[in-house]
Design brief:
177 residues; 0% strand; flat; mainly alpha
C-alpha cells in the first residue's frame, strides 16, 4: 500500500515537473524563429510561384523565365553559402590556434561581409521576381499565400511537442509588431 502510494506521488511529481518545464519558459510572443516580417508579408519564393503558376495566371514565357531565374539564383546562393562556410571554418581554426586578435577580427569582418552579400542578393532576386509578375499576379500570389497560411494554422502544428506556449503573433492579435 505504501509503495503504491509512494509510486503514485512520485509519478505525479514527475509529470508536474515536466509540464512546468515545458510551459512558460519563453515570454509570450517570443519564439526560436522570428514571427512576422517588419516589412510586411514574407515574399513567396520561386518554387511556390511555379507551383501556383496556373492559379495566378503565369504565361509560358514567365514560367520559362522563372525556371531560368530559379537555376541561376540557386547556383549563386550555393556559391555564397559555400564561401560563408569556408570563412566560418577559417574563423574556428583561428580561434582554436590562438591566432592574433587582428587575424580573428579580420575573419569576423569577412563573415559579416558575406552575410551582407547574402541579404543583398536575396533582396535583388526578390525584386527581379517582382518585376516579372504583373500587379494582378502579385495580388493573387499574396491571396494564395494568405490562404495557405490559414490552412497551415488550422492544422495540428500548434499542439504538443513540448515547445511551450506558441508565439502570440501566430494568432493574429499582435501581428505586425
Amino acid at each position: 500500500m505504501k509503495r503504491s502510494l509512494l509510486f503514485a506521488i512520485m509519478a505525479f511529481i514527475m509529470i508536474a515537473a515536466a509540464a512546468l518545464a515545458n510551459h512558460g519558459l519563453r515570454k509570450p510572443g517570443a519564439s526560436m524563429a522570428p514571427c512576422g516580417n517588419p516589412r510586411g508579408e514574407k515574399p513567396a519564393g520561386i518554387g511556390m510561384i511555379l507551383q501556383a503558376a496556373d492559379d495566378i495566371g503565369l504565361d509560358r514565357k514567365q514560367k520559362e523565365k522563372l525556371l531560368s531565374m530559379h537555376q541561376k539564383f540557386g547556383t549563386e546562393r550555393i556559391e555564397l553559402r559555400a564561401r560563408l562556410e569556408k570563412a566560418q571554418l577559417n574563423l574556428r581554426h583561428l580561434r582554436m590556434s590562438e591566432a592574433p586578435d587582428a587575424d580573428i577580427l579580420a575573419a569576423m569582418d569577412k563573415i559579416g561581409e558575406i552575410k551582407t552579400q547574402q541579404r543583398k542578393m536575396r533582396y535583388t532576386h526578390r525584386q527581379q521576381i517582382k518585376i516579372l509578375l504583373t500587379q494582378d499576379q502579385q495580388d493573387k500570389l499574396k491571396e494564395l499565400r494568405a490562404r495557405r497560411h490559414q490552412i497551415w494554422r488550422k492544422g495540428s502544428h500548434f499542439e504538443g511537442h513540448g515547445r511551450g506556449p506558441m508565439p502570440s503573433c501566430l494568432f493574429g492579435s499582435d501581428r505586425g509588431r
